[in-house]
Amino acid sequence: MKRIALVILGLMLLTVSGCGYNTMQANEESVKAAWGDVEASYQRRNDLIPNLVETVKAYAKHEKETLTAVTEARAKVGSIQMSKDMLDNPAAFAQFQQAQGAMSSALSRLMLVVEKYPDLKANQNFQDLQHQLEGTENRINVARVRYNKAIETYNTSIRIFPNNLTNSMLLHLKLKEPFKAEAGAEKAPQVKF
Q: Which residue has the higher pLDDT, 117 or 133?
């Protein structure tokens, strides 16, 4: 009788360890950590923008429309509360992505304005800010790629057998949306001087 009880207990332990519960939890935590990296990168960009705008303003007073667009895009990005809850809300996530896309577009227009002012391009403060912004944009891209990889691992872990059974009975985790290219991203931007 003891032997049968030990065998049953052993089978139960094997079943629990093979159900994927811990794996799915670990993958969800990886998604949250990757999202934190994305948020940190966007915050760095938001922190750099006021300095960049002020430096450009000193040289390009009549480029008010572009400077206003950058400032408004930054304000819109700042008005969206970034949180891990956003990961489970596709509409909020899409709104966040749209605001970040508008910010990227405004910054691209700002860089085109800069091309008109050789003195500004030669200004050390501007060059430092521009290099920091370029580095930040690279960090954002790396963070997005890592986030998408974490999402892929997470989404796979909640869909494969036997994890999908454990998820449907115990956890009820939902698929998460990865970052996607903005509409029109397949076209190269035109640069005109």
A: 133
